[in-house]
């Protein structure tokens, strides 16, 4: 995918990403050229609702079915997302319009929904379900026209056009439920420029739908499956009574319009749905605040350290200076191995694995190689990368375990390969059982689960063992001072040195750097939006690494000055303090932004949120730990120890 390029094109590419981060992407698939009257296949993806968080496959509801139902072979990411792409009976021909056509059933034989089917359809409509279709791999969108100047004259009203993904299954009005049984498809094509004597080819560049609800009596259909739509607003909507059988017709119309949008830019409509201006201001604000605070922290810590080291290295009055400050007093205990070194090194190994995976995924996505047109590519890439990054996680865990005087490397390697992935798999399996019970397409099928287990034990586990073996054999980290045989007594600590207070203080700065981005990510996950601002995300990730490192160094410095040398576990926990704020924000988002009331959707939300918080704690804790470890080794190497 990444062809050999000279430095100049790379520089231009990175410059273009910096200038317009959200717009550039590699389309991911080759364009399909259609000739006049070529069939354009309409496929169904799934039904989704932000109220239930449970996707369902298209034919879980009694829609019209083709003579043969064919499901598309899906990648791992699509299966995990709950996509079940399937063919539909819609007959659409390139640049050929249809006024109104009956999808199934006839005027004298309409579709009859049983009481059970009617109840199911009514339930899905009341739960705000959306239907997702695709044409030429382009998702359907519903146009929303918003008027910004509502108080002024009609002439001065400015139309703000936005799009929402999919179309609403139906709507409720005065306790009555209505189904959208007529779909008006509007497809936009771009005519390709060709040489003379060649037939014109067309490319699909936008796919819109206008859903309508029209009752059976107002739809006039003939024997050739054609129908006539009622004029104006004379018709009544198609009501679905959940207590009895309902008769209706599923109909559709097709309209084609020429567009100037080129094929390579056809996803821009979907990727610019959020307010980018607010995003820019927020990101710039975060960058300025974080770098300003980071600069202040760096100045304070560097000036204080220089003064400390200069004082310590004076030969005169050494006893007086040792009484003034405390971090040199613990030089004989600062590298004393902590409790449970195997678990600590295993968690840090998983943190390194996560860090490498996230860094590569965001960077590759920023270059445009994980386009939304390649469905499930992001999730698939993340899963495989996490497996293959096991070698780096194992190596770092093995070397640290040896540094902490560990001896059982085989048990340590097994712990690294299974501790974090085991927790993730266990939580996902429990949640999956609940999703299975709801017959949702979001449930991971049993063969896919077996395949994931095979990847875990067949790829990740051996690679972790391999990395751990070489890491354990490598020379341990060189600590600049020797550890005393008898541990030093730790004085009573002030209230602000409490671990939870440290978590609260250390988490503010990293969370402040990324909480705006967190809103967009949560919207993408829980409200079925596309997230494609990976240029912003890469910038935020760099800021997160810098802020976590600096706050971790400050916290460990204060701890050592208080003559508390038990910094290993404390620093790992405190550095991940921003994960606590992510949890608080997730609860705030659940209460204020989502309309979830049922038990299972709430369980899914908090279950997946717990996984996100755990992963984020591992990531930030690992970044902070290694920054603090380098800092501690550096400062103790700079002073003369008798």
Automatic annotation (TrEMBL):
GO CC, any one term: early endosome
Key words of the record: Golgi apparatus, Membrane, Signal, Transmembrane, Transmembrane helix
GO biological process: cell adhesion; phagocytosis; positive regulation of protein exit from endoplasmic reticulum; positive regulation of protein localization to cell surface; protein localization to membrane; regulation of intracellular pH; response to hypoxia; vacuolar proton-transporting V-type ATPase complex assembly
Top-rank taxon, per record: Eukaryota
Membrane topology qualifier: Multi-pass membrane protein
Subcellular location: Golgi apparatus; Membrane
TM stretches of this protein: 280-302, 346-370, 376-401, 413-437, 449-472, 500-526, 532-560, 572-591, 603-632
Residues of the signal peptide: 1-23
PANTHER family membership: TRANSMEMBRANE 9 SUPERFAMILY MEMBER 4 (PTHR10766:SF55), TRANSMEMBRANE 9 SUPERFAMILY PROTEIN (PTHR10766)
UniProt family annotation: Belongs to the nonaspanin (TM9SF) (TC 9.A.2) family.
The protein's name in its UniProt record: Transmembrane 9 superfamily member
């Amino acid at each position: 995918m990444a062809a050999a390029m000279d430095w100049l094109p790379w520089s231009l590419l990175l410059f273009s990403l910096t200038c317009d981060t959200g717009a550039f992407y590699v389309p991911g698939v080759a364009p399909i050229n259609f000739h006049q009257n070529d069939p354009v296949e309409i496929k169904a993806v799934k039904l989704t609702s932000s109220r239930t968080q449970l996707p369902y496959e298209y034919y879980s509801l009694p829609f019209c079915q083709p003579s043969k139902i064919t499901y598309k072979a899906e990648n791992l990411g699509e299966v995990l997302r709950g996509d079940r792409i399937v063919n539909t009976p819609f007959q659409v021909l390139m640049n050929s319009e249809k006024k109104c056509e009956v999808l199934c059933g006839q005027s004298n034989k309409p579709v009859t929904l049983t009481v059970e089917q009617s109840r199911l359809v009514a339930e899905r409509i009341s739960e705000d379900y959306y239907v997702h279709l695709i044409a030429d791999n382009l998702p359907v969108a519903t146009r929303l026209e918003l008027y910004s100047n509502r108080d002024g004259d009609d002439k001065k009203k400015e139309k703000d056009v936005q799009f929402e993904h999919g179309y609403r299954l139906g709507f409720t009005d005065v306790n009555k439920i209505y189904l959208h049984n007529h779909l008006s498809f509007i497809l936009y094509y771009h005519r390709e420029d060709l040489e003379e004597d060649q037939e014109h080819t067309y490319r699909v560049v936008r796919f819109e739908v206008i859903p309508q609800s029209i009752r059976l009596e107002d739809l006039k259909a003939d024997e050739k499956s054609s129908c006539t739509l009622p004029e104006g607003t004379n018709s009544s909507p198609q009501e679905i009574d959940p207590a009895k059988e309902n008769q209706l017709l599923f109909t559709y119309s097709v309209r084609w319009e020429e567009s100037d949008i080129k094929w390579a830019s056809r996803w821009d409509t979907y990727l610019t749905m959020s307010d980018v201006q607010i995003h820019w201001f927020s990101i710039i604000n975060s960058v300025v605040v974080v770098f300003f605070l980071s600069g202040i922290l760096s100045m304070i810590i560097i000036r204080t350290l220089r003064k400390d080291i200069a004082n310590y290295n004076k030969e005169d009055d050494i006893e007086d200076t040792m009484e003034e400050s405390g971090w040199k007093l613990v030089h004989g205990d600062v590298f004393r191995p902590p409790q449970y070194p195997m678990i600590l090194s295993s968690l840090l190994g998983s943190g390194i694995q996560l860090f490498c995976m996230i860094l590569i995924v965001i960077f590759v996505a920023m270059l445009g190689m994980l386009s939304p047109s390649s469905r499930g590519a992001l999730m698939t890439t993340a899963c495989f990368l996490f497996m293959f990054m096991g070698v780096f996680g194992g190596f770092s865990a093995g070397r640290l375990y040896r540094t902490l005087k560990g001896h059982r490397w085989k048990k340590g390697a097994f712990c690294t390969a299974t501790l974090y992935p085991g927790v993730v798999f266990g939580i996902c399996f429990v949640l999956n059982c609940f999703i299975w019970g709801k017959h949702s397409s979001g449930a991971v099928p049993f063969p896919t689960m077996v395949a994931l287990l095979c990847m875990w034990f067949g790829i990740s586990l051996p690679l972790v063992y391999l990395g751990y073996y070489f890491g354990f054999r490598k020379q341990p980290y060189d600590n600049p001072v020797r550890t005393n045989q008898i541990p030093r007594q730790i004085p009573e600590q002030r209230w602000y040195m409490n671990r939870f207070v440290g978590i609260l203080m250390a988490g503010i700065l990293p969370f402040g750097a990324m909480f705006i981005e967190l809103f967009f990510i949560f919207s993408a996950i829980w409200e079925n939006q596309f997230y494609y601002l990976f240029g912003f995300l890469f910038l935020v990730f760099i800021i997160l690494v810098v802020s976590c490192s600096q706050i971790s160094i400050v916290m460990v410095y204060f701890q050592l000055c208080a003559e508390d040398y038990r910094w290993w576990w404390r620093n790992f926990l405190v550095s991940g303090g921003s994960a606590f704020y992510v949890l608080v924000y997730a609860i705030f988002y659940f209460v204020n932004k989502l309309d979830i009331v049922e038990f299972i959707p709430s369980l899914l939300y908090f279950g997946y949120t717990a996984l996100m918080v755990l992963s984020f704690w591992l990531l930030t804790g690992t970044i902070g730990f290694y920054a603090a470890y380098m800092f501690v080794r550096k400062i103790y190497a700079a002073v003369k120890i008798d």
